Amino acid sequence: MAKRPHDLDSASEERQKHQPVPPKRSGGQERGDRASHPVKVNVLVSNQKRLTQGTLSAQNGQSTEPTSSTPTPPAKVPVKVNVLVSAQSKKFSKKAQSPRKAEPEWLEEEELDEELEDEAGRLAINVLVTPKPKRGSRIKSALLVSFVLLGMAGTVVGGGWLAVQLIINPGSVRWLSWMMPEWNRHALQREVIQTLAEIEAEATEAGRSLGTPLYLPATVGLPQDLLIPILAESDHCGGRGAIASVPSGCGRLVEVRIYRPLSAREGARPGSFQLMSRMSVNGPEEFFVLDPFVTSPTAVPGSNRIMPLSTVTLIEGNATEPGIWLHLSGERMRGSTRIVYGQVVRYDPAIPQLYSLVEWTSPAGKLPTWQQITGSEATELVVNQTVGLEPSFKVYQVERLQSSTEPIRLTPILLEQAALDSRTYENGLTLARNGLWSAALRTLESLKQQIDAANWSAPAQAQLDLIALHANATKAQAERDWASPSQQILAQLIDGRWGNALQLLQTTIRNGYDLSSLLEVDSDRIWRRVNAALQVNRNQPDVQIWGALVLTAQRDRAAAIAWLRQQNPAPDTNTRVQQVLNLVNPQSAPTLTASHDSRMIGSATQVSSINAVDWLRPQANSPLTLTGQQVWYQIQLANFHDGQRWRRSPFSDLNLPSTGAAQRLWSLLGLTNNSPIQILVWSADGQPQTIEATVKAARVSGGNLQLLAAGSPPSNANSSAGQALSPLAITLSTVSWLETGNLLTLNELSQQQPDGGSALLTNLWQELQRAGQVQATDLEDPDLLQEVGQWSVELIDLTGDGQLESVFTFKPSLLAASSYVTASAQAANQDETRTLIFSAQGQLIYSELSTDAAQFLVAIANPGDGTTALLVANGQTYGLQRWSAQNQRFE
C-alpha cells in the first residue's frame, strides 16, 4: 500500500482549531485541482499527552509553510509515529454510527482523493499517533500468553487426574465431599480405614468420647457392621480407657457412625474398620417432647430448647421393609412421670447410608415398637403417647418412594380427614376424635358390614384399625379393678359406658364417698365426650344426666337444668336428673359450711380397728362404719391452714370449747360433711398411688391433732410396709405442685452465669467430698466441668428475692464412671436420690447429704399464700419449709 508523505506542523497549536472553514468549492472545478487543497489532520501524540491540531498542505508530495501568520513556534521535538489514516467521508460516517466500531481501512492512492473529500472540498484526515512499542511490553505480553496457556493445560491435566481418582480411589479426594449432597457424601469417604484405638483417639482429640459399640444384625452377603455412638464429653462418659468401659445411655449423643470390619485378605491391618456412613444427631425441641401433656390450645409447656439424646437401640419387632431400624432416644422427668423421646433412624447396609425419618415422644415411658395393626401384611411403628387414663397411640406406616434421597418415609395414620364420603363414617370419626373409641369402633364396624367390600378402601381400614387399637385400651381400663372409686368411674366414662358409670357414682356416694373432686377436676374431658356423644345421637338419657352433673359442678344447678331443657329429654330423664343431683349435691340436707378451703398436710397410717368414743364428730350420733372394702386411716397432721395463717405441730393453741368442740375444730380445718382427702402411697421405685378417702372424725391429744378417714386399701404392689416414706395425706386445695421445666446443665449454667456457676461447681464438689462420695481432690473449673458438666439443675425462685436458685438431684450412679468416686459411694444404693439447693451466687443453702440429711424433698409447692415452699419428709412425718431471710435457711 502506498502512503503519502505529510509534513506535520506542530506550531499551529489550538489557534488553528478555531479557524473558519473555507467556502465550498464550485461544482465545475476539476478533479486534478484537488491536490492543491489543504488537508485537515488531527494528530494524537501519546507521549506528549495532549491533542495537537495542524493544517497540512499537500502538493506534488511536498509540504508547504502555513498560510496564516503565527507566532514563532516552540522548538520541535522529533517524534517517530505510526499514522493510521481514516476518511471522514459519508461512507465512513455511516460506519462510525453503527453499534460496532468500524475497523480502520488503508486506502490506495488512487482512491484517496475521492474518498477523503468532505462537503467543503477539503481532504480531511484523522491521524492517530502512538509511540513505537517498547521491547519490555512485548516480553510481558509473551509471558502473559504463556501463563494463560500453561494454566489451561494444567486445568485439563488436573481435571483428568481428578476424574481418574474419582473412579479408582474416591477416598483420596474426600476433601471434595462438601460439594456432594448430604445423602451421598459417603461416596468420597469409603477409604477411611481405622482401628478402634485410632477411632477413639480421633474422637478424644475432637473433645468427644465413644459410646458402647453396637453390632448391627448381619445382612446376607455383607459383613456385620458396627455402630459407634459419638458422645459429648462428660463426667461419666469421658471415654477414658477401653471402649467397652464407656457406659451406654450416658452423655449427649452428637453423631452416629457405621463401620465395616475388614479382613486380612483385603490387605488391611488386623482389627481395622472402614467408615461406611455417619450422621450428625440433634434431639427434638422441648415443645415437641411435652406436647402430649397439652390439654388446651392456650397451654404452651416447655421451650424451644433442644433435648439431648443419649442411647442407641434396635427397634423391637419385625420390620417388613429392608434395612436396620434404630432408636436414638433420651429421657426426662416431669414430676413423677418418666418421658422417653427420640427419633427413628434407618440404616441401609447395601448403599450404605443412614436416614433420619421421624421424631417421637412417649409420656408412657415406652420405646416405639413394630406391630401389625392394620389389615395388611406390613407392620407399623406404634408410639405409645398415653397420659394417665387417656390412651393415645400414634401409628406410622412405611411408604416407599422413588427417591435416592428419601427412599422410605414413615407416614402417620390420621383421623382429621375421613377416608369415606359417608355421614355415618364422619360420625364415627367425631366420636374417635373426642375419646369415645369404643363407640366409634362400633359405628365403623357396623358401616363396614353394610357396604360392599370393594368400596371399603385401605385408608378406611387403617383408620378403623387405629380406632380399634385405642378401643382395646379403653376397654381393658374399664374392666380392671381400681383402688380409687373416682378412677373406676372415670375409666367407665372414657370407654363410653355412661350407664355403668352413673350407677357406680350413685353407689359410691351412698357409701359415704365425696366425688365432687371427680366432677371438678375431670369436668373438661367428661364434657368433651358428652358433647360428641350428643352430637351423633341426642337421644341418650344417661349422657344427658352426665352433662347436667358436669354443668352443676362447673357452674350451678340452674345452668344445668336450663341446658337439659335444650336437649328435649324424656319425662323420666328429668326425674332421674333431679334424683342424681340431689344425691350428688343435696340441697336440704344439713351441712357444715366451711369458711375457707381445707388445706392440711400429714402422714397416714392404716389401722385395723378404732374406738368410736375417742373421736370427735360434727354429729355426735353419726356411726363410724366402713362400707365395702374400705379401711381406716389414722392421719397425723403436721400443718394446716386456719383461713388466716398456716399452723404447725404441736397444736397447743387450738383453745377448743368444752361444748361444740367438734364444730369448732371442723371450722378451723375448713372441713364439711364427708370432706375428701387424698392419701399418697409410695411404691418401691418412688411412684405414688393416690387413694381417695373421706374424713369422718378427729381428736386432739397433747398438742397432736389426728384425723380418722375411710378409704380404699392400697394395692399389694404399693403397700407401704417396709418403705422409707410413710403415706402422705393431703387435701386437694393444700398446695399446687410447681414444675418450672427450666433445666440447664452445669456447662450451660457456667456459660450463662460465669461467677455463680463457678462458685456452684466448687461448692458442689466440696459437698460431695464432705459426704464421702468423691475423693478429696482440688480441681480447677475446666476439670470440674469435665466431671460434672453434664449434670442438670432446675432453676426456680425459692427464696422470694427474684433470683433463681439451682435445685440439683444427686444419685450415686452419676459417679459410676468417675475416677474420683469412693468405695463407699460405689457400695451405696445407686438410685437413692438426695437434693441439694444452691443460691443464685452458687452458695449451698440446702443439702440432704449433710446438714439436712434426715430430710427428703418430696416436692416444691405453692401453699396458696403467694410463697414457694418445700414439702419435705422428716422420718415418718411431713411438713412445709419456707426460706427464712433472717436465719438464711429453710425452716
Describe the overall structure:
- By secondary structure, the protein is of the alpha+beta class.
- 27% of the residues lie in helices and 25% in strands.
- The protein is built from 20 helices and 37 strands.
- Strands 6, 7, 8, 9, 10 and 11 form a six-stranded antiparallel beta sheet that branches. The protein has a six-stranded antiparallel beta barrel with strand order 20-21-25-24-23-26.
- Strand 16 and strand 17 form a beta hairpin.
- Helix 7 packs across helix 8 (458-479), helix 12 packs antiparallel against helix 13 and helix 17 (746-752) packs antiparallel against helix 18.
- The N and C termini lie far apart (117 Å).
- Mean pLDDT is 75; it is low at 1-40, 46-70, 87-102, 109-113, 234-249, 588-592 and 717-722.
Give the overall form.
globular
Strand fraction equals: 25-35%
The count of β-strands is: 37
User: Helix amount, in percent?
Assistant: 25-40%
Helices, by number, come to 20
Straight-line distance between termini? 117 Å
Rounded to the nearest angstrom, the radius of gyration is 47 Å
The mean pLDDT is: 75
Low-confidence segments: 1-40, 46-70, 87-102, 109-113, 234-249, 588-592, 717-722
How would you characterize the largest beta sheet?
A: 6 strands, antiparallel
